[in-house]
């Protein structure tokens, strides 16, 4: 099977969010307003946040299904078959731990490397060059073995750097 290419949004995914938000009036954009309840009331839906209530004809959730089922109260209750499906639907990358590291220069390219790592051993399981296209910032980003979830952030950083030293350069930097 041919591997499909992956793409990044120039400027980061926040560009997509800002572009979508740019089509709204400021008074129609509510930030830091987690939804706690959605109630069907006749032909409208009442959406309750921390400080506000909203009315809508439709609600589109971008939450992972399990999170929607566990965090938002829905009235009247969803059918049992739907609730069961939400609770068992796997969220792609839901159990993943990500990391990102920035550097002054892309030393991995100087070493004739792509900055890409795939590993079945150690903390880092995947890693990719995540530098800005214009060369203004240099970074690597990747995924960690989820069995290390209880290791402190500081200890994970030490482990990541140790593994990357082994893969990407021969001497300590």
Features:
alpha+beta; four-stranded antiparallel β-sheet; 23% strand; 173 residues; single chain
How is this fold's topology laid out?
Layout: H1 13-21, E1 37-41, E2 44-48, E3 53-56, H2 65-71, E4 73-75, H3 80-88, E5 97-103, H4 107-110, E6 117-118, E7 124-129, E8 138-144, H5 153-168
Parallel strand pairs: 1-4
Antiparallel strand pairs: 1-2, 2-3, 5-8, 6-7, 7-8
Helix pairs in contact: 2-3
- The strand line-up of the biggest sheet is 3-2-1-4
Helix/strand/pairing class, anyone? alpha+beta
Strand content: 15-25%
Number of helices: 5
Low-pLDDT runs of 5+ residues are none
Tell me the Rg in angstroms: 22 Å
What gap, in angstroms, lies between the N and C termini? Answer: 39 Å
Assign an overall shape. Answer: elongated
Q: Major beta sheet, specifics?
A: 4 strands, mixed
What is the succession of H and E elements? HEEEHEHEHEEEH
- State the helical fraction: 25-40%
| Secondary structure: number of strands | 8
Overall pLDDT confidence: 87
Characterize the structure shown:
The protein is built from 5 helices and 8 strands. The chain has about 170 residues and is of the alpha+beta class. The strands form 2 sheets. The chain has a 4-stranded mixed β-sheet with strand order 3-2-1-4. Helix 2 crosses helix 3. The longest helix is centred in the last third of the chain and has 16 residues. The relative contact order is 0.10.
